[in-house]
């Protein structure tokens, strides 16, 4: 069996929600945050600037918000099946996200995923400061992590798979051996070699196994 690596975006791909939007709702600025998210995902705004603006709106939230937010997350149909199927073949699965480790780590544990790259939120005295605690995950860092994990797993790039929906997923989708736009924004769908327009991640397996 050929060794493979599947790398997915989290928000609106592995899960049905955008975690930053859920956090925005908890802060009472849900609509404002969601509008910025939508524009950033379409590639209309600089991702770094848009993320910093949204995170700033979360200042003052109690860190207990992470558990409440995770409880509202639902996996995309076929997501857990895709991970299980990949593992049954001896493949590795990673996620790269412009979301946050504080929620992403819970998602990864629940799904049994092998690798995770996400942002971190700064918390002081149990409250969110409205700032990020580390370098921002960008389209470039998503691509770099795909390349790094492929080397770590001993997987040839021709046997890597990248799945995502937003503009910041385009570089990894175009670089992977199999790049899939999943229920994606127009710009991402146009850039991807393959596209899935139905919210069922198991459909990716048909594309991956086509050769």
From TrEMBL:
Entry's Gene Ontology molecular function annotations: L-phosphoserine phosphatase activity; magnesium ion binding
InterPro entries: HAD-like_SerB, HAD-like_sf, HAD_sf, PSP
UniProt keyword Hydrolase, yes or no: yes
SUPFAM superfamilies reported in the protein's UniProt record: HAD-like
First-tier enzyme category under EC: hydrolase
Coiled coil feature spans: none
EC number: 3.1.3.3
Active site feature: 9 (nucleophile), 11 (proton donor)
Cofactor: Mg(2+)
Keywords of this entry: Amino-acid biosynthesis, Hydrolase, Magnesium, Metal-binding, Serine biosynthesis
Record's protein name: phosphoserine phosphatase
Organism: Collinsella aerofaciens (strain ATCC 25986 / DSM 3979 / JCM 10188 / KCTC 3647 / NCTC 11838 / VPI 1003)
Gene that specifies this protein: serB
């Amino acid at each position: 069996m050929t060794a493979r690596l599947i790398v997915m975006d989290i928000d609106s791909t592995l899960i049905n929600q955008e975690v930053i939007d859920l956090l925005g709702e908890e802060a009472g600025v849900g609509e404002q945050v969601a509008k910025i998210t939508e524009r950033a995902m379409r590639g209309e705004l600089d991702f770094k600037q848009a993320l910093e603006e949204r995170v700033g709106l979360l200042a003052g939230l109690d860190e207990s918000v992470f558990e409440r937010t995770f409880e509202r997350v639902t996996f995309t149909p076929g997501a857990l099946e895709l991970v299980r199927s990949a593992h049954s073949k001896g493949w590795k699965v990673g996620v790269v996200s412009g979301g946050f480790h504080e929620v992403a780590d819970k998602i990864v544990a629940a799904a049994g995923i092998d690798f995770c790259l996400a942002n971190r939120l700064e918390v002081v005295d149990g409250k969110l400061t409205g700032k990020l605690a580390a370098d921002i995950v960008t389209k470039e860092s998503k691509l770099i992590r795909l390349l790094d994990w492929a080397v770590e797993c001993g997987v040839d790039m021709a046997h890597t798979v990248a799945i995502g929906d937003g503009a910041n997923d385009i570089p990894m989708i175009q670089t992977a051996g199999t790049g899939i736009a999943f229920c994606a924004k127009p710009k991402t769908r146009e850039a991807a070699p393959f596209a899935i327009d139905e919210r069922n991640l198991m459909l990716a397996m048909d594309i991956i196994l086509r050769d």
